[in-house]
Amino acid sequence: MKIPIHICILGGGFGGLYTALYLQHFALFKSNRYQVTLIDRKDHLVFTPLLYELVTDELESWEIGPNYKKLLSHTNVDFCQGVIQSVDLEKRQVKWQSECGDELAIGEEILDYDYLVLAVGAQMRLEGVPGAATYAYTFRTVADAERLKQRLRILENSHSKTIQVAVVGAGPSGVELACKLADRLGKRGQVRLIERGYEVLKTFSRYSQKSAIKALKARRVQVDFDTSIEAVESDKIIVFQEGERTYIPVDLVLWTVGNRSIDWVRNLPCRQNDRGQLLTLPTLQLGDYPEVLALGDLAEIQYHPHKQLPATAQVAYQQAGCAAKNIYLAVRGKRLQKFYYLHLGEMLTLGKGAAVVSSFALKIDGWLASVIRQFVYLQRLPTVRHQLQVLGHWIGKWVRGIGRRR
Predict the structure, then answer these.
(1) Looking at the record's lineage, which domain of life comes first (predicted)?
(2) Same domain for 185 and 240?
(3) Whether 173 and 290 share a structural domain
(4) Where residue 101 falls among pLDDT bands split at 50, 70, 90?
């Protein structure tokens, strides 16, 4: 019996999962001549653009964290939950350990591949600031969101008159978190947004920046520019601001800045930039290993001499389609296509029931922008089945809300 051609995808985020799903659009990969395997440490997707809605209980975890096996149940993609230990690009082998719950299996397993997609993203870099890894909260996963909510409940049930929160980084994640936290905590909350630079949403449109500033002011979020964090302690942060060192008392610190490559990615024998990202050709391939494609946060694509693509879900989503198409072309011996990024605009949540949308000629903020944003992301959920389940839940909540108001 002929051994099937094996396509191995590492990482189940927007780059990896959607590559697996896009491969299913080609009848070729549904035959027993091909095997597609997806490996991720978690058992569920994290639909990161809607993760912030968990803070204010606007959405539930199952809506933005659907289970991989359920998502892939009607495909020929095999899902394996486990941790990648290393990749041997010469032998075309992946070493990994399977995981069940929080426990790793004893011993490594080896997967041979014919084509490999690297889409494991990056890790939050906390080691550079003393105390950050111990006391700061990250916000990248459903588990992070649940841990944050648990801490918020403790603070809300305390006898403190105020709850002091510092959010580090005024990029999109920091701004979205600050607005959601301010809405959740209300008058009791004192939320500070701490930024090393001199503006919020540095790489975003002027309209999005103005909308964000307006939303932050309306929620009494204090924004500290030109401020660097020197240390994080259990009840305060040490900052350098306006030429002097001072401290700010805090009950909670959220960290949203700084990425670093995963160790085994850094150890790969291929070209990397100074941040440890893999340098790829415009076709998403590694130059010396054309059977390997890299996408998402772990890759820097030779896209434009003076431009680097942002590390966003929108970029990874578009790269997934290109990666699947190029694997299809490669197995047929055809010339691969270059990846071209089309910037479709920006969408950010700016609090409970509020957002900004800036896309081509459409520029809108407030409640209507929030509705548009949620329905655009509804269409981006990975399968029609899951989209319908989430939509049905939203309609049910809306109907129940009308009933309670009568």
Answers:
(1) Bacteria
(2) yes
(3) no
(4) low
Q: Looking at 255, 281, 296, which one is the last position of a domain?
A: 255
| Alpha-carbon gap, residue 139 to 162, rounded angstroms | 22
Verify that 51 and 164 share a domain, yes or no.
no
Dihedral sign, CA of 162, 231, 120, 97?
negative
Q: Please give the pLDDT value at position 312.
A: 87
**Where in the sequence is the domain holding 318, given as residue range(s)?**
5-122+261-331
For 230-285, the pLDDT digits (tens) are 999 999 999 999 889 999 999 999 999 988 899 999 999 999 998 889 999 999 99
pLDDT at 406: 61
The residues near 127 (Cβ < 8 Å, ≥ 6 apart) are 133
Average pLDDT, the chain: 94
- Measured CA angle at 386 (ends 381, 387), to 5 deg: 60
- The identity of residue 51, as a single letter, is L
Distance between CA atoms of 1 and 146, rounded to whole angstroms? 48
Distance CA 336, CA 404 (A): 56
- Beta-bridge partners for 328: none
- What is the distance in angstroms between the CA of the first residue and the CA of the last residue of the chain? 67
Reported residue count of the chain is 406
Both structure tokens of 2: 């002929």
> 278-286: long-range contacts at Cβ-Cβ below 8 A with a sequence spacing of 24 or more?
278/118, 282/338, 282/339, 283/326, 283/336, 283/337, 283/338, 283/339, 284/319, 284/322, 284/323, 284/326, 284/339, 285/326, 285/336, 286/89
**Domain assignment of residue 50, yes or no:** yes
216 and 305 part of one domain: no
Same domain, 23 and 100: yes
Same domain, 31 and 82: yes
Do both 154 and 92 map to the same domain?
A: no
Rg (the chain; Cα; Å)? 22
If one counts the domains in the chain, the total is 3
Angle (nearest 5°) at CA 397 between 393 and 71: 15
Q: How far is 345 from 351, CA to CA, in rounded Å?
A: 19
pLDDT tens-digit series, residues 127-164: 889 999 999 999 999 999 999 999 999 999 999 999 99
Cα–Cα distances (Å) from 213 to 193, 221, 317, 346, in that order, read 11, 9, 28, 15
Indicate if 154 and 88 belong to the same structural domain. no
In a domain, 341, yes or no: no
Residue type, 175: V
